[in-house]
Amino acid sequence: MEVRNHIVLFLDILGYSSLITSCKDSHAENRYLDKIHSIMSNLSEYIEKRNVAIDQKNNNLHLSRFKSLLFSDNILFFAPYEDETDMQNLYMNLLYGLSAFLIQYTKEDIFFRGGIAKGNLFYDEKLHFVFGSGLVKAYSLESKVAKYPRIVIDKELNPSPILVGIDKDEEETWYLDYLSLGHSLICYQNEPKQNYEHFLICLEEQKCAISRAYQKYKENESVFPKYQWLAKYHNEFCVRYKLNDYIVEIDL
Known about the structure:
Blueprint: E1 4-13, H1 16-21, H2 26-57, E2 67-71, E3 74-80, H3 84-104, E4 112-124, E5 129-131, H4 133-146, E6 151-153, E7 166-168, E8 174-176, H5 178-187, H6 192-216, H7 224-240
Parallel strand pairs: 4-6
Antiparallel strand pairs: 1-3, 1-4, 2-3, 4-5, 7-8
Helix pairs in contact: 2-3, 3-5, 6-7
């Protein structure tokens, strides 16, 4: 029994406590239960199926090493790695799959925040017991650094701005630019025209979801800045790709 080097991704649903405490009765709480359970299980299944499909084409990556654990509004993805190259392949492929999912899932009022890191981890599959500094690092990135609906990337993963989908803010915090990465992954596959139309449908859905959240939390000083950031990120992407019809119409 010992810890090993792992890639660890910790994801949390933004504003989960507010969502639950706003429920006036068990019926309302059950509606959120169904919604969150569906999103979390879909995410876990999406990543798993994608990893299996890639492994069938490329036996060298072994992405099926990734495991996931779901608890409450959190989901954890983790996989052991052997060396630097293996580590880079694992974490980038996980971000690829996550980006495609983040664009396509039905958002309504559910957004994610998270952190991805490397570090020591031990997992007992029988007990579903996870232990190690890697988990602490990923959780700390999500809870203390991310702040907004974004996935923060540990500097020790050596993120590079050369790669599509990797960006950093004015505080030198690296994060996943899932719109740019998802755009590349979805739109440049087979049947690009059909995929591009699908991407635009997803972008319109995100626009509407952000607009609703922006109005809903406008008077909430602690929550509102998170959706201000998300609207700004969404709009900057739309301007960059000349998708002005999908800009969220708000004052930033």
